[in-house]
């Protein structure tokens, strides 16, 4: 005896895409993406790989290059003058951390309503808009013996004979250059922090005040977790920028009196000495150091904020679990149904049905 059962439609259980592919739109997207990708490859990646190749040669801008293997890399870590320039990066790293801490403090104050807040934001951010070469000349005269800084200190009661030579004395000249960099980039870091702090929901502060939390507790448990991403970004930008410091020492002192950073020395070797292979190796080493520092910062910040969560991570994990459960249920439903139907059908074709008879 044969009995018929109603047809089981698997197509009704899945979404139906009635919109055909818009190939014109896809073509426009591809064309718009092709130009910037081509520029990136031609002017960034190809020169980078060529530079990596140059680092294995002893060569000048004119002449036949000579392959010497890893000798350029060994010279970087054996020549005292190059090792000394790497040590100078520590000054700028300390200055970068001071810059981030000061910017975070100012942003925490100026992100809320204070008298003259807009003026102070603009005044602190303004140095970042000035050209780096111009800032170099400003501080060159600012630190020159008997000029602005010495005059201000004399007004405060200091004797000129007791003041150091800010750009000549090797005990203070690097700190003077670091101060100019901090002054220039403080506003940029502060503005990024202000934007992140203002994006935090204000009801969190009201709830914390009701629970009796003071300002420090609000900063520790609300602001810091809420700006974790921007904090990590600013630290990475500041540290990597300190490793490639160039404008301040190049313009203010021209790298004299022990102020030549790794980047300044690399410029001298490449253009004055025309040791292109050694300069290329220095650039590769600098890139590797920056990548290692960025990775270490990421690991350290993840460890410090391991218990901090503003709810985003939990929501993301919950959404992933829901999506995984939905896909699993759909697979089981397709197995039960007789005949497999596609997840989406393009065009306006009719739904297919499969009849089950026994």
TrEMBL record:
Protein's UniProt keywords contain Transport: yes
Main location: membrane
Keywords: Cell membrane, Membrane, Transmembrane, Transmembrane helix, Transport
Membrane topology: Multi-pass membrane protein
Gene3D superfamilies: MetI-like
Superkingdom of origin organism: Bacteria
Subcellular location per the Swiss-Prot or TrEMBL entry: Cell membrane
Gene Ontology terms: biological process: transmembrane transport
Chain segments annotated as coiled-coil in the UniProt record: none
Keyword Transmembrane helix applies: yes
GO cellular component: plasma membrane
Spans through the membrane: 26-48, 90-112, 124-143, 182-201, 222-246, 276-296
Family statement: Belongs to the binding-protein-dependent transport system permease family.
PANTHER family registered for this protein in UniProt: ABC TRANSPORTER PERMEASE PROTEIN (PTHR30193), INNER MEMBRANE ABC TRANSPORTER PERMEASE PROTEIN YCJO (PTHR30193:SF37)
Protein name: Sugar ABC transporter permease
Organism per entry: Bifidobacterium pseudolongum subsp. globosum
């Amino acid at each position: 005896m044969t009995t018929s059962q109603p047809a089981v439609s698997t197509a009704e259980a899945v979404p139906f895409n009635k919109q055909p592919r818009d190939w014109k739109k896809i073509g426009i997207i591809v064309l718009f993406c092709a130009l910037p990708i081509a520029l990136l490859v031609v002017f960034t990646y190809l020169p980078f790989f060529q530079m990596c190749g140059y680092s294995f040669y002893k060569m000048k801008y004119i002449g036949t290059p000579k392959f010497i293997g890893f000798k350029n890399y060994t010279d970087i870590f054996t020549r005292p003058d190059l090792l000394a320039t790497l040590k100078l990066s520590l000054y700028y790293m300390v200055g970068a951390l001071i810059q981030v801490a000061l910017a975070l403090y100012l942003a925490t104050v100026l992100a809320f309503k204070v008298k003259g807040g807009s003026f102070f934001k603009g005044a602190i951010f303004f140095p970042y808009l000035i050209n780096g070469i111009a800032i170099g000349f400003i501080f060159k005269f600012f630190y020159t013996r008997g000029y602005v800084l010495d005059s201000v200190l004399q007004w405060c009661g200091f004797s000129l004979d007791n003041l150091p030579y800010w750009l000549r004395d090797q005990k203070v000249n690097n700190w003077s250059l670091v101060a100019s960099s901090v002054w220039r980039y403080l506003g940029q870091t502060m503005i990024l922090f202000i934007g992140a702090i203002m994006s935090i929901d204000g009801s969190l502060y009201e709830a914390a005040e009701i629970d009796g939390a003071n300002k420090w507790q609000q900063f520790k448990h609300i602001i810091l977790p809420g700006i974790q991403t921007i904090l990590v970004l600013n630290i990475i930008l500041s540290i990597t920028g300190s490793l490639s410091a160039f404008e301040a020492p190049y313009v203010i002192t021209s790298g004299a009196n022990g102020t030549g950073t790794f980047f300044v020395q690399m410029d001298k070797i490449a253009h004055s000495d025309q040791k292109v292979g050694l300069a290329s190796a220095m650039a590769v080493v600098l890139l590797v150091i920056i990548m290692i520092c960025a990775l270490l910062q990421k690991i350290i910040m993840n460890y410090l904020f391991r218990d901090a969560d503003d709810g985003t991570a939990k929501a993301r994990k919950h959404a992933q679990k829901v999506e995984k459960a939905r896909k699993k249920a759909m697979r089981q439903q397709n197995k039960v149904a007789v005949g497999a139907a596609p997840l989406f059908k393009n065009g306006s074709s009719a739904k297919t049905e499969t009849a089950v008879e026994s």
